[in-house]
Amino acid sequence: MKSLAWALGAAVALGLSSGVALAADTTLRISLQLPLKSHLGQNLLLFKEEVESKSNGEIAVEIYDSAQLYKDKEVPAAVGSGAIEMGVASLTRYVGDIPAVDIFYQPFLFDTEEKVRAAVAPGSPVRGPLDEAIKDTGSTVLWWQAYGGAIMLSKEGPLKTPAVMQGKKVRVFGKTLGDFVTSAGGAPTLISGSEQYLAYQRGTVDIGMTGVSGVKSRKLWEVMDTISVTNHADIEFIVVVNTDFWDGLPDEHKAIIQAAAVMAEDDVRNRMSEIEAAAYAAAEENGMTVYRPTAEEIEAWKAVSQPVYDTYTEKAGDLGKKVMDAAKGL
Predict the structure, then answer these.
(1) Which end of the chain is less packed: N or C, by CB atoms within 10 Å?
(2) 199-235, pLDDT tens digit by residue?
(3) Contact 283, 290 (CB under 8 A)
C-alpha cells in the first residue's frame, strides 16, 4: 500500500492524471534542473496547463524537475539525441558547440533592461543567429526563459572590488564566467546549479555566482550570508525540443505548443523584475545582507574585464563577431 501511495503521490507531483496520460496522442517530457517551485518551474507549469487545455488532452506534458533525469550540463545531449523530448538548459551549456552563445556573459555588455529585451527578442540580430546555430545540435529552441542578472554570494562581507576576489575559489556556471573570475584574480570552479548548495556548505568554494531567484528557490541563505549585486552578466535559459521529434508532430499540435511557448516566454520576461525583487526581499528576511556596489566599484570590475572580451573574440569566430557587432549596436 505504501508503494502504491508513493506512486500516486509522484503522479500528482508531476501534474499527471491517468485520464490525461491515456488520452494523449503526444507526450512531452521536460527535464529541469531547478525545483518546480522556482520561477522556471512555475513557467513550465504555465506552459503545461496551456498546452493540455488547448489540446483537450491530446498532448500531455510531464515535468521532471530538480535534475531527476538529467543535470543541466547533460540536457543538450539528451534532447539532441532524442533520449528525452524536451529540456531546459542554461544557454551557456551550448558553448562547447557554439562559443558565440556566451555573448550574454560578456561582462556588463547588457547593462540595461532595454538592451536585454532587444537582444533576446525572437529573431533579433543577437538571438536569431544563435537559435539557428542550436538547430545543428539536434534541438530546436521553443522559448527563452529569463533568469535575471548574475550576482555574487559570499560569507565574509561584500565583494566591493576585484581585490576581494584575489586567490578565492569561485563557483561559476560557464566557461566565460570563469574567464571573468580569472581576470579578477580568482580561481573559477564549474559547479552545476543543483550542486551549488553543497559546494557552499562544504566550503568547496569561497564565493558563489548565480541569479538571485536561485538564492530563494534553493534557500542559499542557509549557506551564504551576503549578496553583491554586480549584475555583470545576463543569465538566460532556453527550452529546447528534439528536432526530429518536433518535425514529426502534427501541424495542429505544433501550433498549440508554439502558441503556449510564446505566452510562457512573455510571462516570465515581463515578471522578471518582480521575481528578482521578491527574491531580494526573501534573502533579507532570512538574514542575508544585500550590497549594491557604487558606480566607482562597478568601474573597477569593468576595468579587469577586457581579457574576457579578447578571449570571446578569439574563440567565437564569425558568428561571435556577428552577434557582438549586433549587441554593441543596441
Answers:
(1) N
(2) 999 999 999 999 999 999 999 999 999 999 999 999 9
(3) yes
Contacts of 78 (CB under 8 A, 6+ apart): 31, 69, 70, 84, 87
266 CB-contact burial (10 Å; exposed 0-12 / middle 13-18 / buried 19+): exposed
Backbone φ, ψ for residue 221 (5° rounding): -65, -15
Q: Cα dist. 140→69, 129, 257 in Å?
A: 20, 13, 13
Tell me the torsion sign for CA atoms 10, 15, 19, 21. Answer: negative
Strands 139-154 and 234-242: antiparallel
Q: Evaluate whether the domain defined by 2-328 bears CATH number 3.40.190.170.
A: yes
How many helices and strands in the chain, by DSSP H and E?
15, 10
Q: Domain extents for the chain?
A: 2-328
| Angstrom distance (rounded) from CA 322 to CA 195 | 34
Given the C-alpha cell 527563452, which residue does it identify? Answer: 144
